[in-house]
Amino acid sequence: MTGPRTIVACLLGILAFAPLLAQDAPDREGYFDIRSASTSLVAGVHQLEARLQLVLSNEALDALNSGVPLRIELMLEVIRVRRFIPDATEAELVWQYELEYRPLSQRYIVRNVNSGILDSYATLYSALNNLGRIHGLPVIDDSVLSSDSRYRVRLRSALSTQQYPAALRIIFFWRDEWQLKSDWFEWYLDR
Description:
Layout: H1 4-23, E1 31-42, E2 45-55, H2 58-65, E3 70-81, E4 88-102, E5 107-112, E6 118-121, H3 124-131, E7 133-141, E8 150-160, H4 166-173, E9 185-188
Antiparallel strand pairs: 1-2, 2-7, 3-4, 3-8, 4-5, 5-6, 8-9
């Protein structure tokens, strides 16, 4: 005979594993997308505001859950617009974030490779959601930009495989599941 405690325990067990089951959909294709991005001038520095959607493929999820850290890069270019000659790239910035799953604590760790700051999350969804919310990231000092020029900015996110050994990078190159990157998202710099 099944008692109420057994039913509650089974339901709690199902609820506990539901996020893992949802992450492991059999034909899940990953993608990275920049939903919105802009810069604003704050105290003489242009700061980035962006919303990204980061969805990992099944193969990347399997690697992450097996202890392989994933590196997500955010690349930004500031380009001076010119009339009769090709545009000039004034600045190129790359921010790197490392996503890691720690099975002992059952936590997802996001490390900002540039600053070394660590954040811990209970679910993969919350880790990726937080990575996809960029707020107040310094881009470029306004004083280094020419006052009589117009500038455009472009942003892209990608899953980087450069930190892995060469043999693995060759394998990743031929597998679409590891070619996760967004299109360039462009806008003009407000001054």
